[in-house]
Amino acid sequence: MNLFVESRGHGPDVVMLHGWGLHGGVFSRVADRLAERFCVHLVDLPGHGASDAMTRFDADAVADLLDSHFPLPVQVVGWSLGGLIAQHWAARHPDKVRSLSLVATSPRFVRDDSWPHAQQRAAIEAVGASLDTAFEQTLERFLALQMMGAPAARDTVKAVREELFAHGRPQGLLPALGLLLEADARELAGRISCPVALFFGVRDAITPIGAGRWLNEALLDAVLHEFPQASHAPFLSHQDEFLAKLTPHLEASA
Fold this sequence. Notes:
The chain is α/β, with parallel strands linked by helices.
């Protein structure tokens, strides 16, 4: 299948995986800065941006697809849905993932009795129910929810909204949303042996800070960076602070 990847810069390889409903271009501003020291690969996940869709968006299958696309060891930065895929990639192919940077993500995106660090299932199901009838509006509302609570949220949403369909109209969002509803990757944490940096906004309603703190305890080699004023996209709302913490992590594992 066709997997759209944009690469920029020279140096050690860094693969960036975006969140649901978006595409690799959401990382453009961060990637421009990282490209001064690294070769940065911005992936459109299957069914997103310019990449072909999968009938069933299976986390292991997507991780294997990414692994086959990048034959040499890489460092992986994964945000939200991309962070879930990154966890599978590191657990399944430990020889290929030098380090993980997990941004506002989780092993589980649905709240239940054993996992309070997530949204109610109905909130995610409502997004899927409105995709057919109000596609653009649904994505824009979801985008606004991700930035809610962060300073200058309106400006951040405006900047990302302008890029929302820059890679075309995504064709496979419902299968990926299905993964967010069903995924439970908690058992993977003990199988991830590479260094992991965690980046979480304290004001995040989609992947609450409790998910980051759980990962920090469960992973073998992790450090947690909390952003008190950020919500679901600290790499956008607090770009300079985010890069100041991310870059040393990447340099240490290059």
